[in-house]
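Exercise: predict the fold of this chain.
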Amino acid sequence: VRSRGLGDVYKRQGINCLTGIRKQTNKDLGEHDMFQRFFPNEYYDSTYHIDFQAFYDKGYRAVLFDVDNTLVEHDAPANARAKALIQKLKDMGYGVCFVSNNDEERVKSFNEQVGATYVYKAGKPSARGYVQAMQKLGTDRTNTLFVGDQIFTDIWGANNAQLYSILVQPIAKHEEIQIVLKRIPEKWVLHSYLKKHTLQTGK
């Protein structure tokens, strides 16, 4: 794929992550600093291995989630595991909101199966959708977590909103072409991130 074609894909997705990287590229910045804005606070192999009780004990009271490839495979309905997790979080005392760039039909349908709340067409990596979600839940950036599987939408957006960001590995191994293309520069960021941080796995 030619670089021009790759750029066109990013622009159609409302993202120009390569431009974001280039703006920080100069002789005064090292690789780690260049990618810093894209780094998550933590990185897990699965949403379902995160210790949400530990975060609750630290004072967090809301969890914002991406949906596709974070909780279920792309366009899949809420399965038993996703339903159980959302119920567990609500039982702990968390507010839960889905923050998705998808259209309302997809996000509303998923939300109705688990009984949380949602923001659709969130415009990630803009902070706007995250702010809307916090307003819905009555929380702020000091007590809200975000969990998602994509660096240049989910994590960059959460960082723009100054939230505690958690990156998870995508559930599906086969993804749509526009997502596959975005995974290429994600590998550069993860390579730099993992020099000083670790991938946390389930026991």
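Check your answer against the key: The longest strand covers residues 95-99.
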